[in-house]
Specification:
With 243 residues, the protein is α/β, with parallel strands linked by helices. Helices cover 29% and strands 27% of the residues.
Length: 243
């Protein structure tokens, strides 16, 4: 089984057509997307500025209100792209795919049967289970308007009682030890469960393929830089690519 992995799209609509050509060439059996569909510049900048200045972030900024229209257009275009394939696509939200209500509302309108949101849940492809958790993972903070941030304890709880023998985990946040700024929670889950593959993103410069125990971990690099990866489940071989 060939898996095509992408992440961190960030609204680069002009890359969808050339990526579709690559999918046709690669002929994967499964596509994984590790999050960050929209840009979210106004929300993200206000969140970071508020953290630095020690104040509550302002939801009523005109730039944040104006961003909603762009977000909805990008969600629809990206889902239409994913829905154009006749193979399963599993995905999770990125930290910039906020507010949660907007992300979920846009996805709830999707009528494509091949697209599967696996955030906190699973999708079975024959005997293979794909399970995921999106967003940034923190030591304790939680946020779902400006950015999507989940506390590690909440993520650990979501990964209890995962009994499938063959599984792929899909995160937005990369594991600690694989990437600078990686999540200790994600690494702990990987070390405990040893899935066949973990696909992740978020850390744009921490591109690579590595191992944590028997698990192959892949951050394909950002799609906004024309990057993707291919992984062969039978051979265990992965390859980083650009188009």
């Amino acid at each position: 089984m060939r898996v095509l992995i992408i992440s961190d799209f960030h609204g680069r609509i002009e890359y969808l057509d050339p990526l579709k050509v690559e999918v046709g060439i690669e002929r994967p059996d499964l596509i994984l997307f590790a999050g960050d569909i929209v840009k979210g510049h106004a929300r993200g900048n206000e969140w970071l500025n508020a953290q630095r200045e020690g104040r509550p972030p302002n939801r009523t900024l005109r730039s944040i209100e104006d961003e909603e229209k762009e977000d909805l257009i990008l969600y629809r275009q990206f889902y239409n792209f994913l829905g154009s394939f006749d193979i399963p696509v599993c995905f999770v939200p990125g930290n910039m795919d906020a507010p949660w209500s907007r992300f979920w509302g846009a996805f709830s309108e999707v009528r494509f049967q091949n697209i599967h949101l696996v955030h906190r849940t699973f999708y079975f492809l024959s005997e293979l289970m794909i399970y995921g958790f999106g967003g940034e993972i923190s030591d304790g903070a939680k946020e779902d308007f400006f950015v999507l941030i989940y506390p590690g304890a909440e993520v650990k709880k979501a990964f209890t009682d995962i009994e499938a023998e063959k599984k792929i985990y899909l995160f937005h946040h990369a594991p600690a030890g694989f990437a600078r700024g990686g999540s200790p929670t994600v690494r702990e889950i990987i070390e405990r469960d040893q899935p066949l593959l973990v696909a992740c993103g978020h850390r744009h410069k921490e591109i690579g393929i590595g191992n944590i125990g028997r698990t192959v971990v892949i951050n394909p690099g950002p799609l906004k830089e024309k990057r993707y990866a291919i992984f062969d489940l039978e051979t265990g071989a992965g390859e980083l690519k650009t188009f």
